[in-house]
Amino acid sequence: MTAVAKIVAINGSERDGNTADVLRHAAKTAEARDVEFEAVDLRAISMTRCGPCGDCNDRLVRCAQTDDVPVVVDKMIEADGLIYAAPVHGFGTSSLMQTFIERAGVGYLRFDRPLSNKVAGIVAVARRYSAGTITAQLIANVLLNRMILVGAGFPAEVHALHRGDAAEDEEGLTNVTRMVDRMIDMILLLKDYQRLSGKDDVLPIGDRNERIGLSANELEIL
């Protein structure tokens, strides 16, 4: 059977642990509704930190770093929905997720906001503290990229410390299920609108580039 939509989840954990388990739970929810679900584990890709070139604000083309980040970005662009999932490390998001947000945002997504109008959800995994901190950070990134944020009522925050603890947080997993279901509902609603209206852009995107200091000719290239 052909999938009705695709969701890509970015896993910012350094381990195959509780965050991965939560995404496996999310995958079952999606697949039960004929939605393809792909989890991208940042720990498994080649990803360097932002380099010393410092020309990000002036570049008219993608980042010059040679690693796997553009492959992941292209997967996100092709998807209908996106999930950012990360554990709390040091009272904030994991270093892997932070690096990816910086690299993808500055090097690839700022040119024309290709994630605009994609449906997005946030998952935070925490022992007991700071889940709201990384939820807020990842929400800010979703809004920056002009995505459509979908929630579950209560945040999709799962409490876990030791490996396997996430499976015991019934309320947290229930909120993840609700979030994924609502994401799918929104994706299908947008697809129906596109089909009935014949419009490619469900919502107007407007100015696709917020950078200042570039000439009119350079902005036309973008």
UniProtKB/TrEMBL annotation:
It comes from Actinophytocola gossypii. InterPro entries: Flavoprotein-like_sf, FMN_Rdtase-like_dom, ISF_SsuE-like. PANTHER family: NAD(P)H-DEPENDENT FMN-CONTAINING OXIDOREDUCTASE YWQN-RELATED (PTHR43278:SF4). Residues 6-154 form the NADPH-dependent FMN reductase-like domain. This is Flavodoxin family protein. Keywords: Flavoprotein, FMN. Gene3D superfamilies: 3.40.50.360. It holds the Pfam family FMN_red. It comes from the Bacteria.
